[in-house]
Design goal:
Elements (H helix, E strand, L loop, with lengths): L6 E2 L6 E2 L1 H10 L5 H9 L5 H20 L3 H5 L2 E3 L2 E2 H8 L1 H18 L1
Antiparallel strand pairs: 1-2, 3-4
Helix pairs in contact: 1-2, 1-3, 1-6
Length: about 110
């Protein structure tokens, strides 16, 4: 069930599985064809392995954020007009929240 392509993907018209969605989060926050690359790279990995990799990536991210002050994160532009903290959020917690909602909706339908 975890490998069934039942969720809308990141490329137009693509369908992905919950495993693909977690692989995408492990790989990074990119769109379209790059997401397809992440799906392929992690296709043979187990759900458990992908979840462990995601937990490890989260730990590294939390350590990175905790290593910076609020001023470092939000006090000045870091990339164009965006602060470092906002860029981290845009590329991590926002996609994670989206994926979590999509997987929860899938689980409700699959139950």
């Amino acid at each position: 069930m975890r490998r069934a392509r039942v969720l809308p993907g990141h490329a137009a018209g693509a369908m992905v599985s919950p495993v693909d969605l977690v692989a995408y989060l492990v790989g990074g926050n990119e769109q379209g064809l790059l997401a397809q690359q992440y799906y392929g790279e992690h296709e043979a990995e187990s759900w458990e392995s992908l979840r462990a990799q995601l937990a490890e990536a989260k730990g590294r991210l939390v350590a990175l954020v905790e290593g910076h002050s609020d001023e470092d994160l939000y006090g000045r532009p870091w990339y164009r007009a965006w602060t470092m903290g906002r860029m981290i959020s845009l590329n991590t917690s926002s996609p994670y929240a989206s994926a979590r909602g999509r997987i929860r909706a899938w689980l409700r339908l699959a139950a």
